[in-house]
């Protein structure tokens, strides 16, 4: 069989089960793409995980993939949506003996029989991910938007039908290999708004997991830098029912994410902070997400901002966090 195996520990006797004393086995389908490479880089640092790889000339061969998937505990899909659906069909055909699956594509993010892979979504979400056979890894922009919105909706500070606008900027790696090539060969513009057709693929998950009943307006943009993103949400505080202050919003986020390893509610930024600036690259190569409230008591206005690495907590970092949960392994 033309399958190869990359082992980061001795795998000769590694059984299929991911019991604590044995290394877990993982196959990254689409491992040479942008998200897949990021996952593989992270997994190289984890000596309790064995990554099984497929020969390059077989990487799109369903029979070879199926044979490999019979040997692993978990498959991570880093593929375009249609290819992800094909691999999921292969896994489904294996019945109960099939591996767990974590999908980085958009294909199953609002599917009711999949768990949404944002462990910080709610207090019980990590447990749902741990118990699930199928987990969808969140989109990069929704990771920031949901992290900001969900706690303040749940706390009753933001009505679920409130008209929300979400603005965002991403580095060009968010568009995968083709967008990276167009920026690096100079054919892409330096900066571009997109999503102006109101149909961006992240809107369903952004609305659903933020607990919003009204569809938000979402205007993403992409800039001429490789990775890192900001997601921002302006709010007229005196138009909200309880007229919350910026401090109320910050306290709600701080309470919700207290003790979280990967999500930080940052100190309130107000007139006294004299800052008023934020750049998108500070968290690159990390699995961290920072949440800011910029607020003006004078004008009763606020802007919520999430900062993350689109390839970290927005993709590969989140995938490895979810993988470890699904395999019953400690967070790193
Ligand atoms: N980039 C990002 O920031 C994020 C991306 N994602 C999602 O992750 C998924 C992958 O995206 P990304 O890594 O950016 O994309 P890339 O275009 O960088 O990589 C996709 C990879 O999938 C491979 N591939 C395509 N079809 C098949 C197939 N049938 N079998 C095996 N491999 C195949 C491609 O190979 P080839 O080029 O030879 O066709 C390529 O290596 C997408 O669904 C994307 O939406 C999620 C979060 C963030
Ligand atoms: C700059 C750019 O093009 N970004 C991508 C989103 C990247 C991402 O996280 O999306 P998925 O996980 O859903 O693929 C886009 O807007 O389609």
TrEMBL record:
EC category name: oxidoreductase
The Semialdehyde dehydrogenase NAD-binding domain, residue ranges: 25-129
GO annotation terms (biological process): L-arginine biosynthetic process
GO cellular component terms given for this protein: cytoplasm
Enzyme Commission number: 1.2.1.38
Molecular function as annotated in GO: N-acetyl-gamma-glutamyl-phosphate reductase activity; NAD binding
Region of interest (Disordered), residue spans: 1-22
Active site: 140
One Pfam entry name: Semialdhyde_dh
Pathway the protein takes part in: Amino-acid biosynthesis; L-arginine biosynthesis; N(2)-acetyl-L-ornithine from L-glutamate: step 3/4
Gene3D superfamilies: Dihydrodipicolinate Reductase, domain 2, NAD(P)-binding Rossmann-like Domain
Main location: cytoplasm
Catalytic reaction equation(s): N-acetyl-L-glutamate 5-semialdehyde + phosphate + NADP(+) = N-acetyl-L-glutamyl 5-phosphate + NADPH + H(+)
4Fe-4S listed as a keyword: no
UniProt keywords, alphabetically: Amino-acid biosynthesis, Arginine biosynthesis, Cytoplasm, NADP, Oxidoreductase
Localization, UniProt: Cytoplasm
Family assignment from sequence similarity: Belongs to the NAGSA dehydrogenase family. Type 2 subfamily.
Function: Catalyzes the NADPH-dependent reduction of N-acetyl-5-glutamyl phosphate to yield N-acetyl-L-glutamate 5-semialdehyde.
Entry-linked PANTHER family: N-ACETYL-GAMMA-GLUTAMYL-PHOSPHATE REDUCTASE, CHLOROPLASTIC-RELATED, N-ACETYL-GAMMA-GLUTAMYL-PHOSPHATE REDUCTASE, CHLOROPLASTIC-RELATED-RELATED
HAMAP family for the chain: ArgC_type2
Classification via NCBIfam families: argC_other
Name of the featured protein: N-acetyl-gamma-glutamyl-phosphate reductase
């Amino acid at each position: 069989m033309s399958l190869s195996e990359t082992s980061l520990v001795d795998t000769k006797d590694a059984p299929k089960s991911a019991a604590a004393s044995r290394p877990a086995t993982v196959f990254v389908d689409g491992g040479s793409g942008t998200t897949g490479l990021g996952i593989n880089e992270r997994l190289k640092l984890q000596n309790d995980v064995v990554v099984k790889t497929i020969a390059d000339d077989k990487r799109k061969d369903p029979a070879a993939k199926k044979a490999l998937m019979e040997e692993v505990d978990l498959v991570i899909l880093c593929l375009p949506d249609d290819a992800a659906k094909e691999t999921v069909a292969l896994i489904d055909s294996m019945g109960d003996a099939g591996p767990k699956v974590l999908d980085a594509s958009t294909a199953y993010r609002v599917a009711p029989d999949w768990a949404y892979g944002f462990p910080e979504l709610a207090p019980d979400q990590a447990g749902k991910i741990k118990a699930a056979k199928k987990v969808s890894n969140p989109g990069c922009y929704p990771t920031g938007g949901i992290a900001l919105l969900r706690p303040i909706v749940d706390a009753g500070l933001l009505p679920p039908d409130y008209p929300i606008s979400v603005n965002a900027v991403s580095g060009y790696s968010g568009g995968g290999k083709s967008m990276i090539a167009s920026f690096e060969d100079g054919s892409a513009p330096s900066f571009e708004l997109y999503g102006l057709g109101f149909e961006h693929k992240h809107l369903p998950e952004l609305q659903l997991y933020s607990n919003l009943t009204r569809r938000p307006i979402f205007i993403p943009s992409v800039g001429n830098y490789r990775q890192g993103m900001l997601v921002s949400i302006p709010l007229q505080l005196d138009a909200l029912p309880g007229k919350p202050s910026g401090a109320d919003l910050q306290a709600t986020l701080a309470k919700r994410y207290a003790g979280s390893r990967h999500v930080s509610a940052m100190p309130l930024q107000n007139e006294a902070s004299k800052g008023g600036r934020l750049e998108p690259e500070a968290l690159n190569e990390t699995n961290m997400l920072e949440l800011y409230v910029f607020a003006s008591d004078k004008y009763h206005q606020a802007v919520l901002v999430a900062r993350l690495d689109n390839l970290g907590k927005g993709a590969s970092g989140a995938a490895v966090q979810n993988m470890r949960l699904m395999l019953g392994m400690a967070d790193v």
